[in-house]
Amino acid sequence: MARGFESKGSAEYADNPLDWRKRPRSSPDEVAKTKRREELELTRSRIQHELDATTSDMRRTSLRAALQHIEGEISKL
User: Fold this and answer.
1) DSSP letter, residue 24
2) Which of 9, 11, 34, 75 could serve as a FRET partner for 17 with CA atoms 20 to 30 Å apart?
3) Mean pLDDT estimate for the chain
């Protein structure tokens, strides 16, 4: 016969429903830094994809400069 709501797992959860709040919180600065890093990494990925796909030498030069700039920004973090 099934135990339903009173199973061991749900009973433990009922005793401590806010355990997830006990995790250490990141400071607003850390959150902003993490978000900025993720944005830069996505931009780097997009630029790399465009660089792989382009056939124009001028566009390739521009994308390489942009990629170097983005990598410099990431290294500052």
Assistant:
1) P
2) 34
3) 83
DSSP 70: H
**Statement: residue 12 has pLDDT above 90:** no
Distance CA 66, CA 69 (A): 5
- Token output for 62: 């521009």
> Could you tell me the pTM of the whole model?
0.64
Taking the C-alpha atoms of residue 17 and residue 10, their distance in angstroms, rounded to an integer, is: 10
Burial of 70 from C-beta contacts in 10 A (0-12 / 13-18 / 19+): buried
Residues 6+ apart with CB under 8 A from 71: 44
